[in-house]
Amino acid sequence: MRTDSENDLLAEIRRLQSQLDEANDTLDAIRTGQVDALVVNGHNGHGHTLFTLKTADHAYRIFIEQMTEGAVTLNSSGLIIYSNSQFASMVKVPLSNVLAEDFSTFVTDDCKETFDRYFHTGWKESVKGELSIRSGDLIVPVLLSLYKLELEEEVALSIIVTDLSSQKETERELTLKNQQLESLNQALINSNHDLQQFASVASHDLQEPLRKIQVFSKFLKDRSTPELSEQSKFYIEKIFSSAQRMRVLIIDILNYSRLSKDDDNIESVSLRNIIDEILEDFDLKISERNARIEIGDLPVVEGNAGQLRQVFYNLIINALKFVSPDRTPHIVISAKPVNFRELGISLTNESEYCCISVVDNGIGFDEKFATSIFNLFEKLNPKSTFEGSGIGLAIAKKIVDKHHGLIIAKSEKGIGSEFNIVLPHCHVKRNPNG
Amino acid sequence: MVRKVILVEDDPDDRDLFIAFYAHRTDIKILPSVGNGVELISFLESIEADENLPHLIILDQNMPLMNGKQTLDYLKSNSRYSKIPAVVYSTYADTRLVLDCKKLGAGLVASKPIDDEGYQKMMDDFLKVI
Fold first, then answer.
1. I need a labelling partner for A422 at 20 to 30 A (CA). Which of A126, A137, A226, A433 fits?
2. Rounded to two decimals, what is the model's pTM?
């Protein structure tokens, strides 16, 4: 049999249960915007206060509940009279405990003064500012937007609280990345400066002693002939040619390093004219070797005339140089339409590109070197048979790259080589003489 | 007519070579060389009569105190010396140096030769600008 006290207790539980249900309903009602007024228990025992929220109509309250920002409304003494659930989860306090709490209790100690200033100003004009709030054990950087709300019974201060954690993190990363970029940039400027310094040293200071080695070894050979044995003359000749080789190397490196500087002297360049000029330079060599040169129709391209001349100069000098002595050099220079599918590239404006090929019947090279021959100082042949610095093709590639083009080498050892240069901005002009 | 030629050159080897290669020539008289532009100017200023000024000034580019280009600039803006033909020679005469010196009024810009043949041809070319 139940005792009275047991019944009392059960009744008490039922009463509390219904109170809890009622409180939950109220919270739900607040959240879904069905409530227009709130009674807040008196702070420090000063009785109850009634707050009405007529301006926050149904739709807006739902809207505010869905926001990712915290939204609170304060009364004139700084008590929270409305809070969305987002703000409650920001400060990691149950929503029911947030209400009627002093907003500044959530503000970190070092920011309380700042908040007081915002709070004071906010009643006169809208104000925005950053400070930190406590979120459990954590401190969260936030942006506060304070704005005075004119309600019918009373004025209130609305505050939108934006969590800046991820923004601050991004800012920090961005600053870090910027610093890294800046130091890289500085390193690049320094190394460019070094390169220019080197270029100027190389142009004079390194060449001066080499020239003297040449001058004096020639002196020695020519003016002391009777005293010198054939063997000695041979050694002196070696000294002279080594110095000559070194000078060629220095000048080639110099030319290569100067290509890095921006040289935007772009004009219409007739490749035919360029090739004709180069062949004139090689006149002697061509007649010596009885070389046969065939030139097809060549286009006019947009580019730097001097640099493009260098490309073809380097290719033609190679074609004349790398031929076995028992063979008559035969060079064919011609333009052909570009087939990007063949090159494994997809472009819509194929017609604006052209491909100029330089084909020779020289010693050729193994196809596995087709890419590496364009590297600086890459040489595939012993110096004793074919003289050179190993910079010519590297320069050609750098120039073609600067013209937004491509240079591709194909070869078969003992048969010959083919260099294809693909260039943009081509105007095909037929040679009037066919 | 024998032309008076002055070499402005700081390198003693190059001064010696100059004298050695041109010792046999009768068409030119090599004046005692000076080491840089500053020395050249004080030498020219020490000459009282204009007819005693050199007929040709050969400037090395790389020199202390006043290099070839700076000296050329001074000479060409001076009323007494601007008429004297001046040429520049350098170990490495690139396009930049050639253009700069031509703009300043150099008669010719040459690379330093390495043998007798080169030296004779260079002087022949220089004498043509007089």
1. A433
2. 0.52
Cβ separation of B11 and A208 shorter than 8 Å?
Answer: yes
Question: In whole numbers, what is the pLDDT of chain A averaged over residues?
Answer: 81
Residue at A94: amino acid letter: P
- Taking CB atoms and an 8 Å limit, are B13 and A212 in contact across chains? yes
Spatial CB neighbours of A64, under 8 Å, sequence gap ≥ 6: A56, A71, A84
Contact residues, chain A, for B61 at CB < 8 Å:
204
Q: If you search the block for the tokens 């009785």, which residue do you land on?
A: A47
CA distance A344 to B76: 60
Q: Report the alpha-carbon distance of residue B48 to residue B54 in Å, rounded.
A: 12
Nearest CA in chain A to B12: A212
Q: Which of A80, A42, A82 is nearest to A61 (CA)?
A: A82
The first and second tokens of residue A280, run together, are 């004139």
A214 and B114 within 8 Å at the Cβ level: the answer is yes
CA distance B91 to chain A (A): 6
Chain A contact set for B11 (CB, 8 A) = 208
pLDDT per residue as tens digits for the range A247-295? 887 887 777 777 766 566 778 888 898 899 888 888 888 888 888 888 8
Asked if the Cβ–Cβ distance from B94 to A203 is below 8 Å, we say yes
